[in-house]
Each structure stands twice: as C-alpha cells, then as structure tokens.
User: Fold these one by one.
Assistant:
Number 1:
Amino acid sequence: MGYFRPGDVALRREVLHGEPWVVTPTRVVQDGPDLLGVFTAPGAEFGFFPHPRAHHWQELGRTRWTGIGKLQLHRPGDAYSVDLYWQGEERRFAGFYLNLQAPFRRTARGFDTLDHALDFWVPVDGDWRELDRDEFEEMVADGKYDAAEAEAIQRTAKEIEAMLTARTTWWDPKWAEWEPDPDWPVPVLPDGWEDYPLP
C-alpha cells in the first residue's frame, strides 16, 4: 500500500471491538515511512457506523469538527498521536496534545485507530499535565477496553510521562509554525465511505 500525497483526503476511522465505529475525513500534510501527518479541518463531518456502542459524539449530537482545526502527527508503531492546536483568529499556537490511541493501520482510503481516552497536554507556556484519567477508568469499567488493553494503555502513559519529564520529545517544534493551504476545501466523506473493508 503506497503513501498518500500532500493534499489527499485520508479517512481516519476508529474501530471498536472489531467493528468500524466513527470516521473523519482528514487532509494529508505529510506521509512517508517515518511520519504520517494529517489535518482535521473545521467543519469536517463525522460518519457514524451502526455499532452496538453509540459513539459519545453521536450521543451529544456532534456531527462536525469545531474550532480552528488540528494537525495530527503519527509515527508507525506509536500508541499515540501528537496533535497541535491553535487559538483565535490570529491562529496563536497553544500547545501539543498527546492523544493516546491504537497504533495506526493503513487502509486503502486512510488509516484505522481507536482513541484510548487518556491524553497529555503540553502548553507553550506551562507544565505538561495528564488529562481524562476519570474518563479512561470509566471506559475500562464499562468494557470499552479489556484488562490487557487497559494495561497496555497505562504502559504507554508511563512512557509518555517519562519522555515529557526528561524533555526528550521527538517531534520538531517547528510544526507549530505550520499553516494549512488556504486553497484546501473542507474534506467530505466520499461515496461508499461505509463500505470499505477492514485491513
């Protein structure tokens, strides 16, 4: 399976308990053997699959991505992405958000993963902190993750804590200066988005 080109639309699909759950169209910024970078644009729509467990965005009636948009950096094999956020009309860089998720798996139309609830926030003007511990524990108790998955997620969290404490982060801070191409339209879900198979 080849790499995507900058500007291509890649579908970020979450798969829960072996079944597609939710999908978001993203715009490819960079793709290669060491890094996949995609941009989630304001207004990008979510596609919800029929699933025994309703997605929380679906329950809240949230159908599109809001805010300025986020850039997501993925390294193959990492159980997290590094997301960059900006604020305000002047697009001031706010910080790095480490989103724990299943290592991405390429598909013909994009990539598959699953959000793991735990996150870390690294603001430009303060100390890093862990987020959503209560939500993660609730999801473990509710069966979203089994015991082995929960243990693996906890290990990833400890590895991230050690990296942030030692200040040995791997990503280039110059990504904070990145801006989306103004000619990129908001990506939409293509026809047949519900039907492409799992890898």
Number 2:
Amino acid sequence: MDVRTSFAAQAYAQSRPATAPQPGPAGSAAEGGFAGYAKDFAATLKAGEDTAKSAMMGGADPHALVQALAATELAVETAVTLRDKVVEAYQEILRMPV
C-alpha cells in the first residue's frame, strides 16, 4: 500500500466529522430548512388574513392592516421568486446533453 493513500484516507477520516450536518435548535435538519420556511410562510399568510378580517370587522387599525399586507406581499413575492428559480434550474438540467 502506498503511504500517500494512507495519509489521504487518514485526512479524509479526520475531516469527515467536521463536515457532518449539525442538528439545529429545532431538532432536525428538515425543521431548520425548507419545512421551517414553509411554516413561516403559512404563518405569515394566516396573520395577514386574520388582520384583514379584523380590520373589516372594525377591530384592527389601518396601520396594522398595511403592515400585515406588506408582510404577506413580501412572502408571496419571495415564494414566487424561489419557485421561478427552481423551475429555471430544472429547465437547465433538461437542456443538458446526455
């Protein structure tokens, strides 16, 4: 066995734990990733709807309604932009020669 390959294997074994994913504060990697963003998105939409309903009934001030609508608009624009980027990447993959 070549000494260089032995050193390479040892270096890989030492660097592997440093690159292993660390559990987030929520407990799993999925909670901190896309699932967490999806929950935040749904919560933002729900808060906007609740504020709009409250404003229609006369229970919320117009300033709170404008803030809720702005937050909802920003969340939807972000989701649409993310969707467009994913579709664009998928189309690029389909265009790749095999």
